[in-house]
Amino acid sequence: MAGKIRHQLFLPGDVSKRLEVLAKKPGVTKSAILAEAVTAWLDRKGRSALDDRFGQRLDRIAGLLDRLVRDSHIELETLALFIRYELTINPPLAAGDQAGRAAGAKRFEAFLSQVARKIAAGQRTLEQGRDQ
Question: What sections of the chain are H helices per DSSP?
Answer without folding.
Answer: 13-23, 30-89, 98-121, 125-131
